[in-house]
Amino acid sequence: MPLFPEEPQIHESVPGPRATPAAGRTVPTPRPVPGPGPRPVPRRPGTPGPNRGPAAPPSQRAAGDAAKPAPPAKAPSTPQIQLIPASVQGALDAADEAVDLLLDSGRAPSDILVLTTGDQHPWAAHELSFGEDSYWAQHDAGDDVFYADIEASRAQSRPVVVVAVNGGADASVARALPGAMARAKVLLIVCGDPQRINSLMTAGV
What we know:
Structural class: alpha/beta
Strand content: 15-25%
Largest sheet: 5 strands, parallel
Strand order of the largest sheet: 1-5-4-2-3
Number of strands: 5
Helix content: 25-40%
Low-confidence stretches: 11-42, 58-66
């Protein structure tokens, strides 16, 4: 069964913020108001008076009466996967269009990581011309869309990962796609030939 649905549209299904129940406020037990006590019962001389024990503590709320907040729901363990059909030559353009759509829909630039299986994205190639230290410093800053090779182990996970299948041998692409999925926290978008991608993933090349 193919892993990726062959749909060109990007239907991002991102769980919205979950409301966390506020912790129940503990109501202090009201202290008894001192008042006139009962009058002592007169007794005959020589008759021992009643034994006075320690004062009874104020009533405590029974255990389990206080409402306990429900544990927050866990996020899905695997990201949503979307496939945008594209040729090897058009995969980069499709990835750029996907990024524009994500940004237009309100996704923050820092949420997006773009990976390529073939030639580097032009932005990455340009930034790498100034040296790897400067290039990876932008990645570590984490305040903008970042472009990297799919096999770059230093690229950290982000909510959305966009993969442009713009080249690369079948074996390397098959190895790299699960790694891209592991980096995507919410959504994985793959731009490439659907038949090729599905066959590589199902065959486990």
